[in-house]
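does this look right to u?? inosinic acid version
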Amino acid sequence: MDQFPTLKKDILEILVTRAQLKEAVEKLGRTITRDFKGKDLVMICILKGAAIFYSDLIRQIDLPIRTEFMAISSYGSATKTSGVVRILKDLDHDIVGQHVIIVEDIIDTGLTLSFLKKNLEDRGAGSIHIVSLLDKPARRKVDIPIDYSCFSIPDAFVVGYGLDYDEKYRNFPEIGVLHPRVYSQNENSPCSDD
Ligand code: IMP
Ligand code: MG
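got this back:
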């Protein structure tokens, strides 16, 4: 990782290395290939955080999947606590009767995913499964079953491999804990109750 001295200055500790990510994504790809064999499968990437994980994962799945991208936002006044999120970019095609896998970067409170799952159920999906690279169980506010998750992490704000702070650090190739110095002066502290 000497290739990233600038970004690494802001990382307190690496939680998941490149090698661990690669191995976990390959394993998950094999599992999904096995579990959804013969099914009409749509995989939905939740932008932007899941983009890197998604692009690695779908290349490990030996099935004729359909790709879709959604962007949602949990920003805005009362929306955070209620779990109502805004859809900024919607699916290109309908999902009636189809087997859907939602691909997320991290499940924190679970509010975003529980909204999204309900929303897709209402559109008549045949089945909905949830894949998340990371799981932060300590912060959960709603009970949401995660069907496939790669790593469970402690209650720390992490960046890299798609995850951001203030739209930065997504290109850092490992999962690391962001140094609190980066956000301690900032009003947009990621540790606020969002
Ligand atoms: P939830 O509704 O609280 O589960 O929110 C999940 C979303 O919050 C994720 O898709 C991320 O965009 C963001 N998020 C939660 N925890 C972290 C973190 O540690 N680092 C970066 N983004 C995070
Ligand atoms: Mg984010």
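The longest strand covers residues 99-107. idk if thats expected tbh
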